[in-house]
Structure formats: C-alpha cells, structure tokens
Write a structure and sequence with these properties.
3-stranded antiparallel beta sheet, single chain, 9 strands, Ribosomal Protein L9, domain 2, 4-stranded mixed beta sheet, alpha+beta, 2 domains, Ribosomal Protein L9, domain 1
Length: about 150
C-alpha cells in the first residue's frame, strides 16, 4: 500500500515522501497515529497544497529543539544518591531521576527522550544523551554525588 508520510518516521522516511508499506502497518499503525494518509490522487494533490505549511512547522520544531539542545548542553545537574562501599549506589539513577533534576533546573523534558547507555550505579560524572528531534540530540552532564 502506498502512503504519504505526514511526519518523519524512523527507518521509513521523511515528511511528504510517498512510501510503500504493508497494508497492516499502514492501517494499524501509521494511519491511526496520524503519521500517514493513503496515497490516492486526491490526497496527493491535497498534500502538495499543504506541504508548505507542514515543512514550515517542521522547521519551527527543529529550531525549537536546537535551542533547547543548547540549553541542555550548558546545564549540569547533580543528583544525590545513597552510596555504599566503593562508591556503589543502592539502586541506580534512572531517566526519571534525571528528568526530575532537569525540571528543577528549569528544563522540562519527557523521560522517554533521555537515553542512558549503561545503568548509572556508581558515583561520578556521566554523559547522557537527550533525543529532542529526529535530527537533534543534546548531551547532558550528570554528576552523581553521595547523599
């Protein structure tokens, strides 16, 4: 089934592209979430008309994400955690802990956008990736100190 993408879809395509996908994927995932529409001749003409608006909106979202990425890159957060011998933590620092610390620093980010490569289970300084947009990511410095 051919569909027109209304948003960037990872590993599939960008806004405005006409792609061929399996019928079930289109009907059960892309269309209900508003990520794509059927590529009928009527929809293709309609989409060409609305493409400028969508591209402009995508640019605004990207520039907003870039501004937020700069703010995040400048931010250093400190998380206090209980630690035992050899600087091991009781538990670990999670994306939710980092999101709460960012919120208290004045930057509100959904925890699902925070990607921790390895679980943070020791005291120290760590670099954490924050994916803000399909093309924009920021690196955050997280310092874990004893409570």
């Amino acid at each position: 089934m051919k569909v027109i993408l209304k948003a960037d879809v990872k590993d599939l395509g960008r806004i405005g592209e006409v792609v061929t996908v399996k019928d079930g994927f289109a009907r059960n995932f892309l269309m209900p979430k508003g990520l794509a529409v059927d590529a009928s001749t009527k929809n293709v003409k309609l989409f060409e008309h609305e493409k400028k608006k969508i591209v402009e909106m995508a640019k605004k979202m990207r520039t907003g994400a870039e501004g937020l990425a700069e703010k995040i890159a400048e931010t250093r957060i400190t998380i206090k955690a209980k630690a035992g011998e050899e600087e091991k933590l009781f538990g670990s620092v999670t994306a939710m802990d980092i999101a709460e610390a960012l919120k208290s620093a004045g930057v509100e980010i959904d925890r699902k956008k925070i990607h921790i490569e390895e679980p943070i289970k020791r005291l120290g300084e760590y670099k954490v990736s924050v994916k803000l947009h399909s093309d924009v990511a920021a690196e955050l410095t997280v310092n874990v100190v004893p409570e």
